[in-house]
Amino acid sequence: MSLLDEIEAAIPSLRRYAHALMRDRDAADDLVQDSLERALSRRHLWRGDGPVRAWMFRILLNLHRDGLRQAPRRHLVAVESLPKEPAGPERQEAHMDLREVQAAIGRLPDDQRRALLLVALEGMSLAEAATLLDIPEGTLVSRLGRARAALREMTGRTAPQKKEGRA
């Protein structure tokens, strides 16, 4: 598969991650577009040492960080619109639970949100996500733990209780 084919194959994952990261569809699409432009204009710099997908995610994350540094801090509360579902008590409750979790993820600190989305949404291994974020694996595990604990607290859910063994 050529470099351009691999870049094209990464687009759906980049869009999904950017939408979850930005919580604003238009801004996320702009970020993905900027990432693609950067990758294509600098494809001669691609060393071929690792997955193209990881390289693309690194470009996207770097552009996102640059944008956060340059722009005044925005606190977006908007949640990505969810697909319409038939009404019903159980569906409405699940829909509300999902919106609550999405809003809570949006309130996480950037470093925790980035880590959680790479592992939970994109399904990356701890090693892949740590490499992409340029942090030690132990730091990633700590961020994931703090993010999950914060989500449980923000959504009013408690951590699973460990069952005591019988003697």
From TrEMBL:
Annotated PhyR sigma2 domain residues: 7-60
Pfam families listed in its UniProt record: PhyR_sigma2 (PF22029), Sigma70_r4_2 (PF08281)
RNA polymerase sigma factor 70 region 4 type domain span: 99-151
Highest taxon listed in the record's lineage: Bacteria
The UniProt record lists the keyword Metal-binding: no
Keywords on record: Sigma factor, Transcription, Transcription regulation
Stated family: Belongs to the sigma-70 factor family. ECF subfamily.
Protein name in the entry: Sigma-70 family RNA polymerase sigma factor
Organism field: Albidovulum litorale
